[in-house]
TrEMBL record:
UniProt-recorded name of the protein: Methylase
Segments forming a coiled coil: none
SUPFAM superfamilies tied to this protein: S-adenosyl-L-methionine-dependent methyltransferases (SSF53335)
Any Pfam family hit: DUF938
Domain of life the protein comes from: Bacteria
Annotated InterPro entries: DUF938 (IPR010342), SAM-dependent_MTases_sf (IPR029063)
Amino acid sequence: MHKDKPFSQACENNKGPILEKLADLFNQSGTTLEIGTGTGQHAVHFALHLPHLTWQPSDHPQNARLCLPWIEEAALANINPPLALDVIKGDWSNLPPIHGVFSANTAHIMAWEEVKAMFHGVARILPTDGLFCLYGPFRYNGQHTSESNERFDRSLRMQAGHMGIRDMENLKQLGETNGLSLQEDFGMPANNRLLVWRKA
C-alpha cells in the first residue's frame, strides 16, 4: 500500500455518478483515453467497474506520473501505463487506437488555446461515432448555473488569468468546427454537467 497516494475529494465525490453514465456510453470494448488523469482515482474506479474497457491515462508531462501510486496499487490488467500528453504540442501520435475519450475538470484549468487543441486532437483520434465525454461546470449564454459556480469561477480567474468556467456556446461551436456534435448534456451533482460529443 502506498502511504503517500495523492487524493482528490472531488474525484471521490463524483466518481459514482460519472460511472453510471459512462457504463451506458462506453458499453463496447475498446480503449478509452482519459485526458487529465490527475491523481488516478477516476482511472482506477472506472477500469475496475468497466472491465470491458482498456483505460489509457494521460496528463500534461509535468503531471503524468502523479497517478502512478493509485494505478500501481490497483494493479489492474486493463489500465495502460500513463502517457505524457501535451495537448498543444500534439504528441497524439504516441497513443494506441482510441475508441472513446473522457476528461474531467480540465476545460476550466486549461487555457482556451489548450481547450481548442484538445478538441482538435480528440477529433483526430476518435473513430466515426466515437464519443468524447467532458465533465465539469459550464456556463450557458454567459450565465453561471449556480452561485457556487460563480464563486469558483472568480477564484480560478484570481489564481491565473487563463483559467475560468467555459461557455457552452463556445464549446458547441468548437465541437462543430472539429466535426464533433453535442449529443447529450447531462445534469450531474454539485452543479456539474457531463457533455457528450459524437464524431460525425
